Amino acid sequence: MTSPSDVDAFFVPLDDNRFASTMHTGGPWDPTLQHAGPPSALLARAVERTPSPWPAAVITRVTVDLLGPVPVAPLRVTAGVLRSGRSVELVQAELAADDGRVAARATAWRVRHADLELPPLPDEHDAGPEDVVPPFPETEDAPPIGWGGGYLAAMEWREARGNWGPPGAAAVWGRMRYPLVADEQPTGLQRVMAIADSGNGVSYVLPFESWFFINTDLTVHIAADPVGEWICLDARTRVDPAGFGLASSRLYDGDRLVGRGAQALYVGER
Q: What dotted CATH number matches 4-113+134-269?
């Protein structure tokens, strides 16, 4: 029988809502604990698959609260509707370890899909500094030394602006080398959630050898339906001496801005 470590995917289904985590989910600090990108995408998948009363729905916002470390181990995902309405719903999904501990919880707003004939919009609606898609380099870039393996190696990276080796704001393109779930094609939302949690790592401002800047959550607002394999993460981090910070990001596909991300950070000395 094939073991999860032999599968080129982030997760392998064990039954309808239980998944084996592969080595591709491992984080840069501890290979036995997951980077939050893959589990965030897995929660988004659960939200997408939660039955809707409408023929089609659009997810407009996803918030993931990280309640504890996510082990590279079997995980159970459950989902359901928290609040239902005629045109808007709030959906919740949870990810738990085999011991029953809930490691992450997502809430997402989704709206009934419409086909509107919009009137002419102001010029600034379609053109602004944030609407300029960062350049797409032709060559692949490796993460900083010491950041390899697991999730970081399972993603293909290309630096678009700045440099994520030295501290500071930066923009990088990322592509999942493998499916989120074995034998499935990732959706645009899943691709966005898989990379959005890297905002604080891409744009770190404190030396990671002597400081930690751990995000307690991830919120992504969707501005357009993401298309294609590549997603650009244009991120900036701000920290405060009181011991907290904010990593904010803009997310692009090959043609346009598709979302905004934010991570609340817990900051301290190692």
A: 2.40.160.210
